[in-house]
Every structure is written in C-alpha cells, then in structure tokens.
Amino acid sequence: VRSYILSAFPVEFLNQMQNMLGDEYPAFLLAMDEPPSLALRLNPLRANAAEAAAPFIEENVPWAEHGRYLKPGARPGAGIAHAAGAFYIQEASAMAPVALLDPQPGERVCDLCAAPGGKTTQIAGRMGGVGFLLSNEYSPKRAKILSRNVERLGIANALVTNETPQRLAQRLPGFFDRV
After folding, report:
1. Is the pLDDT of residue 150 over 90?
2. Is this prediction's pTM over 0.90?
C-alpha cells in the first residue's frame, strides 16, 4: 500500500475501518490503492438503451440489474446516447444501495439527498414508471442538476423538491413505503 493512501484518510477513519474489518483490513487498503471501476447503468425507461451502450460495455455489474462495467478508455458521456438518457454514468459501488432498497412498481419512495440523480434514476428504473418518487435535494444548485437528469432520463413519476428532510417528515409522516 502506498503511503499516500494512509495519509489520504483521517486516522480516526482508518482506526474505525481496522476495528470493523479485522483480518480484512489489509485487503481494504489494497482496494483503496486500485483505480476505480468505471460503470454505467442502462435506463430501462428508454427503448434500445442496451444497444446504444453496447460499444462501451465490458461486463455486467453483479449486484445491479442494469449496471455495466465500461471497457478501458470508453467515453460514453461524449455521445448522443448519453444526452438522450439511454444510460447514466455511475460508479458500480454507488448502485448497491438501491439494490438493497429494492423499490417496487407502485410504491411511494423518497430519495432525501438525491443530487445529482444516480440513485433517483436507478430507483425510477426499478419502479418502471409506476408509483411515486419524491427526489429531494436541499441545495438549490444541486436540485437543478437533479431536475435535468430526471428529465434527461425520461422519468415521469418523479417530483423534485428542494426542502429540508425535517419539513418533509413533518408534512408527510408515514407516507413513503421506502426512504
């Protein structure tokens, strides 16, 4: 492990990870020294998304139904398919929370810290346009970015808000099936 990895994190964090991971801590440090795995997520709300992304894809992300690892050197964000919402560029590890959340069509789901929209668009894809998705972002500037991504990916059952989680909880107690 290169020394800059150890200096890149607060000592308290590294100690916490060592306590939590035990024997797996050295593998964690080695993983932190590796370049990130670049990926994208196909948009099931767009026809022909898989065909549009095919030139960039190397293999499937095991925990994300529509997740795909990118070929080395692939630049999918520079093309028309990205602009048309065929896919969302997202690190593979960021796809895991929605896989665990397991949103279903017809449910009411809230994404509280939704910008720039990776998890929101993944939730929407799993809901298949059926149900209600509230995508909240406290920062007005980031909420605009979120709105653009929701629109670009063709999500019709989402509402983007710019509110504090506390006020949403006060106004919508018990409303959501998943948060």
Report:
1. yes
2. no
